[in-house]
Design goal:
The complex is a heterodimer of chains A (98) and B (345).
Chain A lengths: L5 E5 L5 E5 H4 L3 H7 L12 E3 L5 H18 L13 H11 L2
Parallel strand pairs in A: 1-3
Antiparallel strand pairs in A: 1-2
Helix pairs in contact in A: 3-4
Chain B lengths: L10 H20 L8 H16 L7 H25 L3 H25 L1 H5 L1 H4 L5 H33 L6 H13 L6 H29 L2 H21 L5 H15 L2 H5 L6 H6 L3 H11 L6 H29 L4 H12 L1
Helix pairs in contact in B: 1-2, 1-3, 1-4, 3-4, 3-7, 4-7, 4-8, 7-9, 8-9, 9-11, 10-11, 10-14, 15-16
Classes of the chains: A alpha+beta (98), B mainly alpha (345).
Family (chain B): Belongs to the cullin family.
Protein name (chain B): CULLIN 3B
GO molecular function (chain B): ubiquitin protein ligase binding
Chain lengths: 98, 345
């Protein structure tokens, strides 16, 4: 993946997820950050730390981003959610406006 | 997100943190040496608002934050923006206004993103204006409200200077007039009431003055050339900096002052009016006359009246010629009718 096309999302435990920018933009908050006037265009530190999102949840969210893009492209599959993750997932989704 | 473990942020504390971000933003806008926002800055500011809005009552501070959001703009505008605008005049004031408006839009964009969470639920729940609208309204109610008259006058003055042949900064005017449009947030009311109406009035007065001089000094063809040139220039003006919706209204004013008002005097000018042009077969001038007068209501009525008189007179003369010739057996009637027909083509 080219540097310009990727972002790095870092969980509370420090786990780094490098994903496509397009996927990350499924989150309105991340999208806003990446399209704000000025700073981020040329910046190298296209990385965001989420000290309040655990690794498990962040991983699930990244999976969701990709699933969402596929769904939008017509590939209508189910997105599996383990019941024990639901509450935290909902909160994280609300936080990230996803 | 582990909400139960989260420490409650107290309003004063949380706001102090936000204030730092807002100050940083203002410094950036003022051009001071201030590093840009990092993604970490961004997330922390967003998260602070998020937390303060999702805390359990009585620590749910959405209303207070919504008010403080607006107050941030009001404070900046009254302490910094308005004073800098008040001390400038004419073209300098226009330049400063354009700069401040651009800055304001950037400020709205950033702050509304930090405070974004309020847009998600709070504003809908209370049927309040969204953050973007609040931000723009602040500028409108504080800056625009105070200065739009001065701005309008400065713009019209520049337009009249350009009419007199001076070079003006057209891009500047376009930017200023864009403000009148944008401040309406979808409605053209501000542009129409606070600028266009006065501009049209000034235009009418300008061309009325010009016409009253030209009608005395110029021949009909010369006057028409000037009128056509003026219409062309005004149309050009619209395409460069006026809003497109002004075009029909503007041209109507010019046509009225230059053509409708003086139609009779112009057409009946003794040595150069419509009759003379027909007589001397001045096709180019007659075409111009047709083009110009066809645009005004009933504009061609006097023209066609004179034309009818002319044809009748010419026709009658030719018929008489033919009668005379017929009696001399020199030119047949059959010859004269084609001549008349050719003439009318």
């Amino acid at each position: 993946m080219r540097k310009e096309d990727s972002v790095k999302l870092i969980s509370a435990e420090g786990f780094e997820f490098v994903i496509h920018k397009e996927a990350a933009m499924v989150s309105q908050i991340i999208s806003n950050m990446l399209t704000s006037p000025g700073s981020f265009a040329e910046t190298e530190h296209r990385e965001v730390t989420f000290p309040e999102i655990s690794t498990t949840i962040l991983e699930k969210i990244c999976q969701y981003f990709y699933w969402s893009l596929q769904y939008a492209n017509g590939k209508e599959t189910e997105f599996p959610i383990e019941p024990e993750l639901t509450l935290e997932l909902i909160m994280a989704a609300n936080y990230l406006d996803t | 997100m582990a909400m139960n473990e989260r420490k409650t942020i107290d309003l004063e504390q949380g706001w102090e943190f936000m204030q730092k971000g807002i100050t940083k933003l203002k410094n950036i806008l003022e051009g001071l040496p201030e590093p840009q926002f990092s993604s970490e800055d961004y997330m922390m500011l967003y998260t602070t608002i998020y937390n303060m809005c999702t805390q359990k009552p009585p620590h749910d501070y959405s209303q207070q934050l919504y008010d403080k959001y607006r107050e941030s703009f009001e404070e900046y505008i009254t302490s910094t923006v308005l004073p800098s605008l008040r001390e400038k005049h004419d073209e300098f004031m226009l330049r400063e206004l354009v700069k401040r408006w651009a800055n304001h839009k950037v400020m709205v964009r950033w702050l509304s993103r930090f405070f974004h969470y309020l847009d998600r639920y709070f504003i809908a729940r209370r049927s309040l204006p969204p953050l973007n609208e609040v931000g723009l309204t602040c500028f409108r109610d504080l800056v625009y409200q105070e200065l739009n008259g001065k701005v309008r006058d400065a713009v019209i003055s520049l337009i009249d200077q350009e009419r007199e042949g001076e070079q003006i900064d057209r891009a500047l005017l376009k930017n200023v007039l864009d403000i009148f449009v944008e401040i309406g947030m979808g409605q053209m009311d501000y542009y129409e009431n606070d600028f266009e109406a006065a501009m049209l009035k000034d235009t009418a007065a300008y061309y009325s003055r010009k016409a009253s001089n030209w009608i005395l000094d110029d021949s009909c063809p010369d006057y028409m050339l000037k009128a056509e040139e003026c219409l062309k220039r005004e149309k050009d003006r619209v395409s460069h900096y006026l809003h497109s919706s002004s075009e029909p209204k503007l041209l109507e004013k010019v046509q009225h002052e230059l053509l409708s008002v003086y139609a009779t005097q112009l057409l009946e000018k003794e040595h150069s009016g419509c009759h003379a042009l027909l007589r001397d077969d001045k096709v180019e001038d007659l075409s111009r006359m047709f083009r110009l007068f066809s645009k005004i209501p009933r504009g061609l009525d006097p023209v066609s009246g004179i034309f009818k008189q002319h044809v009748t007179a010419e026709g009658t003369a030719l018929v008489k010629q033919a009668e005379d010739a017929a009696s001399n057996k020199k030119v047949g009637l059959l010859m004269t009718i084609p001549t008349l027909a050719n003439y009318l083509m």
